[in-house]
Amino acid sequence: MNEHLNNDTAAPEEKVYTTLNLGPTHPATHGIFQNVLKMDGEIIVDAEPTIGYIHRAFEKLAERRPFNQITPITDRLNYCSSPINNMGWHMTVEKLINAEIPKNVQYMRVVIMELARIADHIICNSVIGVDTGALTGFTYIFQWREKIYEIYEEICGARLTTNIGRIGGFERMWPEKAWQRIDDFMKEFPKELKQFEDLLMRNRIFMDRTINAGGINAERALQYSFTGPNLRATGIDYDVRVMNPYSSYEDFDFVIPVGTSGDVYDRFMVRQQEMWESLSIIRQALKNIDRKSTVFHGDVPEFCLPAKEEVYNNMEALIYHFKIVMGETDIPVGEVYHQVEGANGELGFYLISDGGRTPYRLHFRRPCFIYYQSYPEIIKGGMLSDAILAMSSMNVIAGELDA
Amino acid sequence: MTTLIMTSGFDWWPYILVVILFLISLGVAAYATYAERKVAAFLQDRLGPNRAGPFGILQPIADGVKMFMKEEIIPNVSNKTLFILGPAIAMLTALLTGAVIPWGPDVVVDGKVYRLQVTDVNIGVLYLLGVVSIGVYGIMIGGWASNNKYALLGALRASSQMISYEVAMGVSIVTLIMFTGTLSTAEIAQQQHGFWADGYFTWNFFKNPLVFLIFFICALAETNRTPFDLPECETELVGGYHTEYSSMKLGFYLFAEYVNMFISSAVISLFFFGGYNFPFMDQIDNQLLVSLIGVGVMFAKTVFFIFVFMWIRWTIPRFRYDQLMNLGWKVLIPLSLVNLAITGLVMYFTGNLE
């Protein structure tokens, strides 16, 4: 007892560090992951991230599911921008079965993907604001995410986990109301986005907090195989939409914004600029879309559910209906990798098919999983507040992290 | 009761005033929580509380009832005495400060003078500073007794922040005392009589705006408001020093913050904006009317500064810990010292030195 007391009162010979459990449930983690931080006062000496709190075995699940039924799984990857995940998955299967998609449908896909990108960036950037303590920007901009969700709702009926579209195109033509809502959004949103920028972008305290906080240089970012806005913030202009265009992205004219130092402020600015570019892409797409068209999917009857009257009156339609509903559509043997520019970075689908009704193996390349590997390195030596900001600025989403 | 007051030789008035002041402080603080939510809603394009009563006017009462009904949780690993003492100290010190503030000019009824100040101690300014600095013990003890790392971090942040900013606040008050020449709050208020005298403004703000600026920033820090709300910043420290608190003990901490804000606003309006003084007060003949308007003006100024506090909170982000310290030690303290020196020089050369 006495010895213990003596030890306590004497000054420690070595530095004593505090261990702080950041998470699994912490207001700032925006999801469930744990960080065991070794702290010297407020300074982080070491960090040990733990993942797997919401591991849901998506890749294994996918091996037992018919192709159309895998779409809802992709919803739950990065649930902030599920339409991009949905489209990425559809395009992967389309690549394997060599389906040809009409231009109109491709443009519609571009619209929905860019809307999803805006929604995701809204979340990320407003949450950076919240984590610096400025709640008001969040409330201004967040209702515009609601408007985007209303657009989803008109198109597919769901809001968060959208399950938008089918392999080969869409499940139905977009209703008039959806177009109306998109037009309204395009008219109103730029003003609000400008207001949000005015509130934060040149705010002295915000700049002090974010500049030189949670940075990573281009070389290390490439070594970790960063993609998306987080890589572009370091100054490398890699964008899948340009480097490896899909869904007719080559038809559009847009700029890839890049940063210089890869810190929180650069990530914020890159995302902010990307929203403006997305708006410009949507505007270009809307100009070229034929809203009266009745074609809403490519010629892939084995994946697109026929209309009910067709089913009752047409033998082939009945067969396809049965095959789709029972999930008995076989696809060719092959291996295919398809990547899309997710809101967070390159979202890849590696699909191996042995010719059956389900994939032999499906692997998701999830950008968050990669970002999170670098998290300890980024936050080491910084302060606790920087660590929180680094996490929200990388937009690490637990659903995508664990899959 | 009334006859007792009137007939007995003993002066009951200060004691009655204490009760009135206590109730007003609590009432204003309660409605400050409501105002905070309404102001936040106004600034954020939302509705805010609107269910309890018309315009949600009964919301603070509902909140209070809720706070009392909640289960009290005292963590097993905590130091129970200190755990309870923490919020008590916070609340106590918050309520003590109101005693030296003159809330209005003297009211004369039937030849008897009723002072609208509980006590006019001759070192009122020092008393204010002293009581405010005890306030940090409430947070420190509470954070430490919780035996929670987040609470401890919050308490550490709170104590270092308050101590650093008290220095700048103290120096700026010294500057104020230099040109007012008194430590009594009542006298400070009297000196700012009216609005315009001898060809210059009487309010201290116009005599030295920099003192006001430094004092105001420090007041933000002392009350733990944005941009200095690091001790309780939710996104980093969960709840900061009150992470482990529940029920009315949590309510006391939150409430103390609002009482502090009320008192700070009152002090700011007293020190720099004339307190109960208002322009053209000499043109009004009725002394009672002047007193009543004076009280109203005092409260109007206070409410305005409470609004400014809220306005700031919902507009700007918060500092990081090291930036906070940099601002305190490298900017505010040198600035207030320079201000002190310049004020001294000006007073020396203009012959205002007493």
Description of the molecule:
The complex is a heterodimer of chains A (403) and B (354). Chain A starts with a helix and ends with a helix. Chain A contains 18 helices and six strands. Residues 1-7 of chain A have low confidence and may be disordered. In chain A, the strands form two sheets. Chain A has a three-stranded antiparallel β-sheet with strand order 1-2-3. A three-stranded antiparallel β-sheet of chain A has the order 4-5-6. Chain A has a single domain (21-30, 58-402), classed as Cytochrome-c3 Hydrogenase, chain B, CATH 1.10.645. Helices cover 51% and strands 10% of the residues of chain A. In chain A, a hairpin with a 7-residue loop joins strand 5 (346-353) and strand 6. Chain A is mostly helical and 403 residues long. Chain B is an all-alpha fold. Chain B has one domain. Chain B has helices spanning 2-7, 13-43, 59-69, 80-96, 124-145, 149-180, 185-191, 204-207, 209-222, 234-237, 247-272, 287-313, 321-350, and strands at 107-109, 112-114, 196-197, 200-201. Chain B has a two-stranded antiparallel ribbon with strand order 1-2. A two-stranded antiparallel ribbon of chain B has the order 3-4. In chain B, helix 4 packs parallel to helix 11 and helix 6 (149-180) packs antiparallel against helix 9 (209-222).
Indicate the topology.
The complex is a heterodimer of chains A (403) and B (354).
Chain A: H1 2-9, E1 18-22, E2 34-40, E3 43-50, H2 58-62, H3 67-75, H4 82-97, H5 103-132, H6 135-156, H7 176-200, H8 204-210, H9 218-223, H10 228-232, H11 240-243, H12 264-288, H13 308-313, H14 315-326, E4 334-341, E5 346-353, E6 361-365, H15 367-373, H16 375-379, H17 384-393, H18 398-402
Antiparallel strand pairs in A: 1-2, 2-3, 4-5, 5-6
Helix pairs in contact in A: 3-4, 4-5, 5-6, 5-12, 5-17, 6-7
Chain B: H1 2-7, H2 13-43, H3 59-69, H4 80-96, E1 107-109, E2 112-114, H5 124-145, H6 149-180, H7 185-191, E3 196-197, E4 200-201, H8 204-207, H9 209-222, H10 234-237, H11 247-272, H12 287-313, H13 321-350
Antiparallel strand pairs in B: 1-2, 3-4
